[in-house]
Amino acid sequence: MPNVHLCLMSKVQAKSPLPHAELLVEHDHGVQFLRELYRGLLAHAAPEIGTLFTTLAEPDAMPAVFHCAVGKDRTGLVAALLLTWLGVDREAVLDDFELTDEHVHQAQRDELVRRMADRGIGPEAAAGILGAPRECMQDALSELESRYGGIERYLREQGGVDPDALLTLQRTLLD
Length: 175
Hints:
By secondary structure, the chain is an all-alpha fold. 66% of the residues lie in helices and 0% in strands. The chain has one domain (8-174): Protein tyrosine phosphatase superfamily (Protein-Tyrosine Phosphatase, Chain A, Alpha-Beta Complex), CATH 3.90.190. It contains 10 helices and no strands. The chain is elongated and about 45 Å long. The two termini are 19 Å apart.
């Protein structure tokens, strides 16, 4: 299995500065932070997302694992994009994303809230950030359609994925 290290978050942070932590107080502030994060990932991490899709299409690339620190934001967006590319119904993609909220253990959640509080983020905002609000992924996928012209155009034009690699990936995962 190929080993590919992609750092999606550094691209977003470099091109789209994150809000000041002290402004993240209310739950809705955390949810808005996620909306901006997902849009930022679409806008600034497309080449890395394209590399991931291209790598997954390579011979002997499967089985494969992709992950991030908590397993819901970068991983969630990539999973949603992959499922969208495979033709999975939008509601099922969103249902799948929401399930990630059930898999963050309370001890991990408590530790992350503590670390965010150390950076000045309020506990309510931290709870918003650590959730998996359906509307945040819905907004990202809607932007994928409206701004980028859909998943195929996004992967080809923004991500630089070869059309043959996309077809190979589709055949590999659907056959």
